[in-house]
Each structure stands twice: as C-alpha cells, then as structure tokens.
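#structure-requests
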Amino acid sequence: MGRRNITHVSDFILMGLTDSEEIRLALCTLFLLIYLIAVLGNVGMILIIRLDSQLNIPMYFLLSHLSFLDLSYSSVITPKTLDNLLTSNKYISYLNCFIQMNLFIFLAATECFLLSSMAYDRYVAICNPLHYLAVMSTRRCCSILFGSYLIGFMDAFVNVLCMSRLHFCDSNVIYHFFCETPPIVALSCTDTHAIEIIISTFAGSTLLVSLIMVSASHVAILSTILKITSTSGKQKAFSTCASHLLAVIVFYGTTIFTYAKPSKSYSLGKDHVASVFYTIVIPMLNPLIYSLGNKEVKNSLRRVMQKRKGPKQLK
C-alpha cells in the first residue's frame, strides 16, 4: 500500500557525470566548445544548402534535415548538462524530465531512419546513377522524410504510454546527466518487466530495420564499387560510402550499447561514455564527417561568400 500511495514526484535530481569540481569545470568547458562547434557546423550546413542552388539535390536535402535533427537533439540535452556542471542546482522537474526524454527519443529515432534513407540515397547514386534524380524525386524525398518523423513520433508515443505507468516511491535520484529511459526505468519501484519488453521491442525494431536497410545498401554499393575499373572512380565512391558508414557505426554502436540490454544492468561509467558520444559528440562529428570534408560543400561555401562580397564591392 505504501508503494502505491506515492505515485508521483515533483522533481528528479540529476547526479551528473562527477562530483569533482575541477573535473566538472573541465567537462563544462569541453562540452561548451563541442556544443558551439555543433551549432555552428549544423546551422552552417543548413544555410549553405539553402543558399546555393547547386546543392539542390536529394543527398543535400536529406543532409540538411540530418543537420536539423543533430542541432535539435543536441540542444535538448547539452544546455541542461552545462547548467548542471556549472551550478549546484541538479534538480529537474518531473514534467521537464519527461519532455526532455521523449523529445530525445523522437529525434534520435527519426535520425535512425534518416540515416538509413541516406544510405539508400547513396545506393541509388552509385548503383543507378542515370536514374538517380528520377528515383530520388522530390516527392520520394518528402515521403522518406515524413516516414522518418512518423516513426520517431511513434517510438516517442509508445515511450510516453509506458513511462506514464511507472511509480517512483523510493528515490528520485537519477545517476545520469540527462533524463534517459534506462536509468529512469531502473529507478521505478513498479514491476517494469512488461514495460521493458515493450520499450525494448520498439527500440530494437527501429534499430534493426534501419540497420538492415543500411547494411543492404552498403553491401550493394561495395559490390558495385568492386566492378568499377577506374581507380579514381573507386576512390570517389569509397570516400562517399566510407563517410556515411563511419557516422552510422558511431551512432548505432553507442545507441545499441545503451538500449540493447536490461535497464537493471545500467552501468554508470560505460553508459555515461556511450551517452556522451551520441548526445553531445555525434552532433558535432556529423557536419565534419559529411560536409566539411566534401569538395562540393567547400566549393559551395566559396560561391556563397563570393556572392556576399559581390554586392559589397559594388557599393
């Protein structure tokens, strides 16, 4: 009866990454630098793609939305993390905690399927280049984008339904730096077995289906590349495929490490490192992996800068 009487808490306490003031200051400086690079990189990519008509192709249309997702879910997590590192106030309200958690799930699940869609885009571009624009039409791209956001919404909606059934009566201390599903489920005094199965099924299905799409696309790409006789053609195709594959491995690897195991096995050290990677580091890495090493993007940046200098010179 006592366990059922206390069914709601007004706030949670985020214990963060460390209690050491020196380490907290160092981490705060590092995370702030990473966040600023992520914001500048992703906003810059979106602006370049929008301003340069030569990047008005399916690949960069999808890439602009990847930048938007990275910018969004980094902004959902990082500012609160920086606040916790800088101040002694580690409290987060019950409502804000669940908003943060479900926004993150929505954006991360959407990114999963957007990454797999980008793998399909590269497959069409390399394996069927003559029909690329016909296959990846504006209508197809918009459908892919809508489907990605719909799947993200469904995952978040299921999480909302499951988490709303939890009761917190023993402790409100979350041993993490943001409100993530595994540590919150582990915190509950409710029997979470059925809820864990439902959440794991949906999260696992999202990861598995998108991974199958990514793997199938890259196997087909590799098969096509091996048939190319030109050395320069092989290098160009490999560089395009390798950058996407690197981003996929980092994102999916850390996500699977966190979510493909029971919440009761949640580990402070290892799970913190994995979470830092896919919430703070990856949004910074994606613009670097996909864009800053891309000749088309560099040329586009030069064209945009020249257009801005042109009118000033006339004045």
